[in-house]
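Human:
I keep going back and forth on a fold encoding question. Comparing notes only helps if you start from a blank page. Show me how you would write down a chain together with its backbone fold. Write it directly below this note and I will take it from there.

Assistant:
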Amino acid sequence: MIIRTVNIICLAVLFLELAILAANLIFKKRAERIAFLRGFRSGGCAMIYIIAVPLYCLGYVYAGGGLLESFFKATSKILNLVVLQYDTSEISLLMEADALYNFSIYLCFFIVLINAIILALSLVSQYAWSVIEGLKVAFLRAPKLYIFGNNDENVSIYNSDKHRSKAIIADLSKEEKEKLYLNRVTYISTSSMEKSAKRLLKLNKTYTREHFVVINTGDDEQNLSIVRTIIDDIDALAEAERENLLFHLRVFVFGDTKYETIYNDAVSKGHGCIHYVNKYKRATVDFIDKYPFTAFMDERHIDYDTSLIKENVDINVLLVGFGHTNRHAFLLSVANNQFLCRTSDGTPELKQVNYHIFDRVDAKNDKNLNHSYYRYKIKLPSMKEEDYLPLPALPANESYYQIDVNDEEFYSHIKNIVTKNENDVNFLIIAYGNDLDNIDLAQKFVEKRREWELENLVIFVKAIHSHKESMLSGVENCYFFGNEEETVYNIDKIANNTFYNMAQMRNEVYDLEYNITHDKNLVFDEAYIENNHIASYKNWFVSKTQFERDNSMYCCLSLRSKLHLMGLDFIPKEEGSAVGLSEEEYLEIYARGDMPKTENHKTRINGKKIVDYTLDFPDSKRKNLAIQEHYRWNSFLISRGMVPATVEQIKSEKILRADGREKFSNGKNYAVRRHGNLTSFEGLEEFRRIVAQRDGCDELEADVIKYDYQLLDDAHWLLDKNGYKIVKREKSKK
């Protein structure tokens, strides 16, 4: 009876041990499961051997042994079990006599075997896992993502990718390997990331799969060293191999904005495969996309019939802090938020946005701004009007306040601006400190809004991390921006920027359209379209500069703001209950009385109608929006440090083409940051006459005004092809 009772107790403990083992292996999270397994190294498996002692004792006692003798013999058998030596010869009598005991012994042996396997795994699992995962990344025939550098930002990029074979590559310490292993992040540890780049990319082979590379080591010297290694390998390829590589390799390198010129030089030498990532620019592009100023304006501010800003309405932007984020927000806003109002004689003119910049240091005097945005303003006093086409207006008004947020006059300055006119629209962008600093100040301004009884103040708060616990979450007219995990350190945001894709698509289709309208003998078939696709893709990434690509991207980025000026918006096709407008419905709102002329062409290019542009640009909403687009283009060029070309440069300057022949530059020279079209809208007509007279051609051939019409003429097609629909705005923003 005693033997049966002890046997049952031991059997119950064995089942409990087995259940605990299964629960830890099946139900625990990865980190907890790994910690459980590693516990076997330090005696986590001892319980099963302790339970084996009374089981063996029962067998020895049943065979006639004394209790003390049986105990010592049982403990000695445990050493054999540890090395998996199973011996039942001395306890076989009880095993034959009692089936339950027989089952208990074999169950004990089974659990001992499992424990031994787990112990072995606990010793080699991390090494085996890293080797297997590294081999999978290197040799699996699948799209690749190689991330150079180990930091939280790169782990975020790694986790954001769900489709590629991927790994983080760095010189890793034991602790770093442990952390990545616990978080199931595949890694390749190397003492030389440059050698790893050569080995993993193997650029001398013909590429057939997509390879994405992210370089973000946190050390600019290291970043550039890896980039130079990749560029050297690309340079060593034959021309045909480089062209093939352009479609399969994309290298994204992060870097400090103070070295942007150096990184852009690397981009220019990368044969279209290298792309510089400015995290502040990425975050502020997302900001401008989500929160165009027009989203907070309504019929009190906009005349929807003309798309002009109404009289007695000022647009004020107050930037608290003028570090990297707000400086980029300022430049990007100036380059996109351009508006027109009506003059006393009824003609549209630029409505400059007022920027009020608050910082505790002298933010106005800045070498980067003087090199870029203020270059035109600095040169303007010395520019003789008779030497130029009509000079463009300055894109904005800026006022600087050197004041600390703790200064007693700080709130007074803000109040004087935002309470000046109840018809104004006011935007406050807070990016002066860390997340908590910014949120704390924003909370104070939420209270100030109530105190000052303001409806026309919109507050934007920079926070690089999510802070949903903040009382600001969901507060009317207060919005967060700059979450880097969502807007920067995400592979889809890095590799698939919506507006760059739109800009590239426009570039390809306009190349086709140009060729069709200028070559009457052109054979327009599938082979021609495919060849043009390859040529246009190469031209976009290789021939065009980053400046030109940004120019096209910013044009597309301004699309939402332009639609808002007509009482429209665009949303993904699958979102919202609103029915998207048909192309005819959109054109009726946008171009009533001044429709784009498309009836002369039956051919459509990727679904887009070909527009016949004339020199007749009648007054209309459509023309107002074209003028607005030209001033937006002007402001982008000025924000990048471009200045107008002289009339003489437009008339006579020549440059060498890629084929070695000379051609007129029309005053455009990116190397010295100068452009012949940097003029007023009326100045474009004069430019057209100069070029036509110089070349002895028709003015229609020399016209550039049509380019300011193209974005909105083709907006329905462009958005539809990219998965969006144009809708009427649901309600006014109050």
Q: What stands out?
A: The first helix runs from residue 2 to 26.
